[in-house]
Design brief:
The chain is of the alpha+beta class. Helices cover 23% and strands 29% of the residues. It has helices at residues 64-68, 99-106, 112-117, 167-189, 195-206, 224-229, 274-277, and strands at residues 3-8, 16-25, 30-35, 41-46, 54-57, 59-60, 73-74, 79-84, 127-132, 137-141, 148-149, 153-157, 243-255, 263-271. The strands form 3 sheets. Strands 3-4-5-8-9-10-11 form a 7-stranded antiparallel β-sheet. It has a 5-stranded antiparallel β-sheet with strand order 12-1-2-13-14, with helices on one face. A two-stranded antiparallel sheet has the order 6-7. The chain starts with a strand and ends with a helix. One of its GO terms (biological process) is Golgi organization.
């Protein structure tokens, strides 16, 4: 997953809105978002290493009644996402899968901050990790950014340092701020959190394939032509026939009213149509 927008604690009824694109080699085996049978996790799955790039804690409630009708689930509000860090340093065979950073948090009981502080950072290739629940969200990487709680606001995380002003990051920030957040606000004003009202705009933003001009490219050590191919929010270009945006996801956390103090996580993912073009 290569870019994520997080609107954190901007709306009382919806304290988390997360939009993300996962970019990956097309040949890497992947299962789209589903309820895992072996762990209390809902999310996509990297079938090569067994972890996930984005998921929520969700546990099926075992009962004969629920099995026969609509399945019932319990949640504890935990969610997490991981992105790779692009700095030219290659992963080594002895490093652990970054996807386990997500699964370990979702299946554990440490607070987001406590979990982020105890990670053995150098056991993994470069990453940006966001872990959270309904009260706290924490960002950490193993490239010099310590475990830090997110402040209320809109955060854009890609494959560099948090909130680094890459072209794709600033374009996503601007489009989410101008095209998505106002629609969410309007929806919540009517106390309905109607995703049909704002979800199409969010998918549209995540499918933005505009690339940066030469002078807007970051310097990460990659050749300029490759850097440009990777510079769009959604990567879909003939220059990268074997790599691109594969999964687009939107995660929200809904807070109950005074009569219902619980929270509900909703994760919606779709496979990007890039795969059908090849």
């Amino acid at each position: 997953m290569c870019i994520t927008a997080i609107a954190w604690q901007l709306f009382d009824e919806m304290p988390l809105v997360l939009l993300s694109n996962r970019d990956e080699f097309l040949a890497r085996p992947t299962t789209q978002a589903h309820q895992w049978e072996d762990l209390p996790i809902f999310g996509g799955r990297d079938d090569k290493s067994g972890g996930t790039w984005l998921g929520i804690h969700q546990q099926p409630l075992e009962s004969e009644t629920s099995k026969q009708t609509n399945p019932l689930f319990s949640q504890n509000g935990r969610w997490a996402a991981v992105l790779n860090f692009r700095d030219g340093v290659q992963a080594t065979p002895d490093q652990r899968s970054r996807g386990e950073l997500v699964t370990n948090f979702l299946t554990g009981d440490l607070s987001p901050l406590a979990y982020a502080r105890q990670i053995e950072l150098q056991a993994y290739a470069g990453f940006n990790l966001i872990v959270g629940d309904d009260k706290q969200a924490v960002l950490v990487n193993n490239r010099g950014y310590p475990a830090t709680p997110l402040h209320s606001g809109l955060h854009i995380i890609s494959n560099g340092q948090p909130d680094e002003a890459w072209f794709k990051s600033e374009r996503l920030r601007g489009r989410v701020r101008q095209e998505v957040l106002p629609l969410i606000s309007e929806s919540l004003q009517f106390h309905q959190a109607d995703k049909e009202y704002w979800l199409p705009a969010a998918w549209n933003v995540l499918t933005d394939t505009l690339q940066a001009a030469d002078e807007q490219l970051p310097d990460t050590g990659m050749p300029p032509a490759l850097e440009q191919a990777l510079s769009s929010i959604c990567i879909d270009t003939p220059e990268l026939p074997n790599y691109g945006t594969r999964t687009q996801s939107i995660l929200t956390l809904l807070r109950g009213d005074e009569d219902n103090s619980g929270v509900e996580l909703q994760l919606v993912s779709r496979e990007y149509a890039y795969l059908a073009k090849k």
